[in-house]
Amino acid sequence: MSKTLLTLDDDYDFGLIGISCHAKDYRICWEINKTLKTDLVRGNDYEIKRKNEISTHSFYDFYDETNQTELYLIANKGEKGFLIPEQKTTDFFLLLKGNITNHLIDDLLTKLNGLNLVIAAFNINPENLKSKQNLLF
Q1: What is the pLDDT of residues 79-99, one digit of tens each?
Q2: Sign of CA pseudo-dihedral 30, 32, 38, 40
């Protein structure tokens, strides 16, 4: 009897913006909500299991019914390390799902870079990250 092997490829069909800033998560979230006119709300911490440890990262989410998009603000630095270790200078990730266009990402980058708290906001291609599986939820 022959065996059939089923392999599933993960879907990295989302936009990802890296944010570098020295503010606390609630402070940057408040600024983002005010600037983007969103309502990011704190959810349960995002947990990543590594070896025998669980690293928790602050997690905020918002669903925009008008544009059919989901926004997630996730802290890169957790209690037990980084969510994406190869992006140590990135403090937060703004993950976008749904109806995402390059124009929308460019508009968000312009607005985020205009915030006083933000040192830099930049587009990240999830396919180029070694730890991209940590962003799947």
Answers
A1: 888 999 999 999 999 999 998
A2: negative
98 Rama class: left (phi>0) / alpha (psi -120 to 50) / beta: left
HSE on the CB side for 90, CA within 13 Å?
22
Place of tokens 């830099």: 120
Tokens 């990135």 belong to residue: 90
Q: What are phi and psi of 81, to 5 degrees?
A: 135, -165
Residue 85's CB: how many other CB atoms inside 10 A? 13
CA-nearest of 46, 32, 37 to 79 is 46
Instruction: For residue 53, name the pLDDT band (cuts at 50, 70, 90).
Output: confident
Strands 69-75 and 92-98: antiparallel
